[in-house]
């Protein structure tokens, strides 16, 4: 029992002294009190080889584990670095995809705008012409809209409405005639070109 008590005291003394050992340069001179303390410890170990053996084995164990822990820490650091690199690559890829989506969306908007502008020249339309004027003419830039437009140069034709249905154009024509525009009549178009109403009704 006495031997184990001495061993415990020696180990406690040794580990309490370790911070001082690691904090100092091994080549530094010891003070008188430090020399006395370490002589006492050395003397105790010389009388108790079992304690010295245990201490040596403990030191080797800690050193071995310290190396393994350091290796594990380095491995984890490498994993984190790889993850960060992968995340950076993913973020860059996401930014590239966002830019591509933005570009495609802009292109889609341009296509839609072009298609919308060209819709007036696609398919069959019916309109109502209310007059054709050669001498007294209106400014086309002030009048042209989706519902009212001016066609021709020498002979200026004023047309109203834009309908896919002949019946809708007929309703507008009849309403204009009731208002006194007796010469209002229906005109038709196919892909932007005037065609006869009879031909348009065959489509």
Task: Provide a quick synopsis of the model.
With 203 residues, this protein is α+β, with helices and mostly antiparallel strands. The protein is 64% helix and 15% strand.
Show unreliable segments. 1-12, 17-24
Biggest sheet layout: 5 strands, antiparallel
Structural class: alpha+beta
H and E string: HHHEHEEHEEH
- Report the CATH topology name of the domain at 122-200: Alpha-Beta Plaits
Give the CATH class of the domain at 122-200. Alpha Beta
**Topology, number of strands:** 5
> Biggest sheet: strands side by side, in what order?
2-3-1-4-5
> Would you tell me the overall average pLDDT?
78
Strand content: 15-25%
Shape: rod-shaped
**What CATH architecture label of the domain at 122-200 applies?**
2-Layer Sandwich
Notes on the structure:
- With 203 residues, this protein is of the alpha+beta class.
- The chain has a domain at 122-200: Alpha-Beta Plaits (2-Layer Sandwich), CATH 3.30.70.
- 64% of the residues lie in helices and 15% in strands.
- The chain is built from 6 helices and 5 strands.
- The chain has helices at 2-23, 32-47, 49-118, 140-143, 166-178, 197-200; strands at 124-133, 148-151, 156-163, 185-190, 193-195.
- Strands 2-3-1-4-5 form a 5-stranded antiparallel sheet.
- A hairpin with a 4-residue loop joins strand 2 (148-151) and strand 3.
- The radius of gyration is 50 Å and the shape is rod-shaped.
- The protein starts with a helix and ends with a helix.
- Residues 1-12 and 17-24 have low confidence and may be disordered.
